[in-house]
């Protein structure tokens, strides 16, 4: 049943819309509700026997390509906050090009939907040679990465057919947030924060159901943008990864040039691109970076930027500086889970842009679902 399109026209469309269910499956049996004698917690059977080693690691190194790398980047802030261990990110090919340092005291996490990506597999071989503890985070039971790592967590998102990864991305973020929760489980001072995130996880599928109602709005936006040459996406903090991933979705399926930009870097170059023609999505949902993003919006508006602002429900008039600005209001969730919500309208936008531009949604030109050659 998973590998037919049901009532959808394309696999990508189906996979975007089944995220409430795929996320539920990802979390099934892993969240413990707690009671008066037992705290809320997370159980990841695959990591249970290795937690001591992971907590004592010199570094947690997350390695992946494309969307899987972006998912790790989205989870980085919460991994840093809860684990108490330095966290670094590596694009697999770049780690190999540099022969970057991997130590035997490191824990290296290999993030891959297919579990078969050549660059990620080669990076795994390299990390094994260097003696690191290697953990797989994949969607494919029995894949090379799950077989060759010391331990791991399956994301259980269900079979993903569309070349553009959508439901695997949100499930990967949730798995890495759960890994952060498990590693930090021995720290009493963060108990309240962890419980709030666990509550947020329980409610996440419902919030994703809510954000999917923006489908028609995103179709209308796609109609407006269909003939554009380029689209910029500005994000920061938890949502820097959302900007990268949103732009990757737009470029890989709709074949429109798109760049995800770290908003903090705006004045160091990208601002020169801004004029009254270039459409710019700014992600400004509520979190510790909100005030800074409001200032970014003001500066882009002062240069007559064509703004599309993604904000938390009810913030539309607060964040939009003028009538020309378009708003995408999304449900607010716990800050570290907000990337799961915020990416959905961008997935929908990429999908509708592709259909309107007449390109192949599920099999974009020149791309393969799993890149098994270097
Ligand atoms: C995702 O939309 C892309 N097609 C691509 O970036 C993909 O995420 C990348 O090739 C990594 O694949 P993996 O997760 O199977 O390792």
UniProtKB/TrEMBL annotation:
Region forming the signal peptide: none
Domain SIS residues, every copy: 50-189, 221-364
Highest taxon listed in the record's lineage: Eukaryota
Protein name, per record: glutamine--fructose-6-phosphate transaminase (isomerizing)
Origin species: Papaver somniferum (Opium poppy)
Residues of the whole record sequence present: 393 to 766 of 766
């Amino acid at each position: 049943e998973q590998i037919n399109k049901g009532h959808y026209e394309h696999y990508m469309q189906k996979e975007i819309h089944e995220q409430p269910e795929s996320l539920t499956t990802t979390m099934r049996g892993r969240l413990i509700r707690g009671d008066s004698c037992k705290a809320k917690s997370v159980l990841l059977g695959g990591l249970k026997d290795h937690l001591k080693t992971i907590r004592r690691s010199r570094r947690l190194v997350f390695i992946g390509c494309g969307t899987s790398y972006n998912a790790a980047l989205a989870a980085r802030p919460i991994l840093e906050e809860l684990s108490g261990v330095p966290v670094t990110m590596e694009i697999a090919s770049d780690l190999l090009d540099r022969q970057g340092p991997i130590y035997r005291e490191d824990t290296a996490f290999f993030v891959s939907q297919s579990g078969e990506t050549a660059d990620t597999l080669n990076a795994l071989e390299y990390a094994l040679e260097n003696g690191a503890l290697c953990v797989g985070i994949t969607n494919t039971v029995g894949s090379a990465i799950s077989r060759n790592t010391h331990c791991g967590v399956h994301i259980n998102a269900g079979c993903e057919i569309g070349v553009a990864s959508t439901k695997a991305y949100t499930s990967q973020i949730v798995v890495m947030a759960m890994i952060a929760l498990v590693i930090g489980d021995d720290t009493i001072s963060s108990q309240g924060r962890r419980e709030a995130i666990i509550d947020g996880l329980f409610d996440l599928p419902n919030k994703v159901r809510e954000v999917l109602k923006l489908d028609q709005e995103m179709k209308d936006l796609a109609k407006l943008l269909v003939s554009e040459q380029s689209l910029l996406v500005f994000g920061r903090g938890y949502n820097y990864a959302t900007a990268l991933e949103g732009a990757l979705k737009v470029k890989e399926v709709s074949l429109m040039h798109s760049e995800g930009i770290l908003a903090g870097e705006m004045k160091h170059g990208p601002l020169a691109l801004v004029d009254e023609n270039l459409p710019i999505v700014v992600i400004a949902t509520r979190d510790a970076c909100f005030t800074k993003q409001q200032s970014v919006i003001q500066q882009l508006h002062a240069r007559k930027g064509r703004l599309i602002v993604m904000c938390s429900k009810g913030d539309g008039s607060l964040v939009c500086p003028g009538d020309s600005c378009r708003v995408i209001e999304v449900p607010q969730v716990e800050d570290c889970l907000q990337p799961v919500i915020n990416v959905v309208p961008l997935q929908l936008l990429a999908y509708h842009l592709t259909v309107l531009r007449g390109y192949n949604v599920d099999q974009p030109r020149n791309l393969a679902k799993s890149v098994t050659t270097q």
